[in-house]
Amino acid sequence: MQPYPSAPPPPPSQPGSAMPRPRSVRTAMRLMYAGAALDAIGVILGLATIGSLKKDIIRHSSKQLTTTQIHGLEVFSIVGTVVIGAIAIGLWLWMAWANGRGRGWARIVSAVLFGIDTLSLLLSFTRANVAGALILGILVWLAGLGAIFLIFSKESTPFFRQQSGQY
């Protein structure tokens, strides 16, 4: 007869157990939601300024484009603005959701997307831009920078490790 039943000790934490989200992750999620909102504003502003696009196309085309071609470029620009904006907003929301649940892969995907946004912002300095669009791009980039900094901070790392069972 054994005085104490022997059983293996329980693991220090189970993957997916209810470890509270650290403040840094909650703040990063808010920054990601802000990035989505800023991109939504960008889509709205892009659509609001489509009318000036037609004038720019006509002015820079040297009268080489037909009316149909100008209209096609205008439609292409509208569709591009909406589709790219919707993808950007969706990515922001998806990354907020995944990082909020402590998915380790989401930190990597967020970092890659931030790198792409950084390249895009740098390229925007080489093109003629509307000042408002450039300012909005910088604000979106800053939201991404803050979110990346927070999800890779020392406060956040244990949360991501615990959620993926890496302890």
Shape: elongated
Strand percent estimate: under 5%
Give the termini distance in whole angstroms.
35 Å
Measured as a percent range, the helix fraction is: over 70%
Main sheet summary? none
Low-confidence parts, pLDDT < 50 over ≥5 residues?
A: none
Structural class designation? mainly alpha
Number of helices: 6
Radius of gyration, CA atoms, in whole angstroms: 23 Å
Describe how the helices and strands are arranged.
Elements: H1 23-48, H2 50-60, H3 67-100, H4 104-124, H5 131-151, H6 157-164
Features:
single chain; 167 residues; mainly alpha; 6 helices; 72% helix; elongated
What's the gist of this structure?
It contains six helices and no strands. It has 167 residues and is an all-alpha fold.
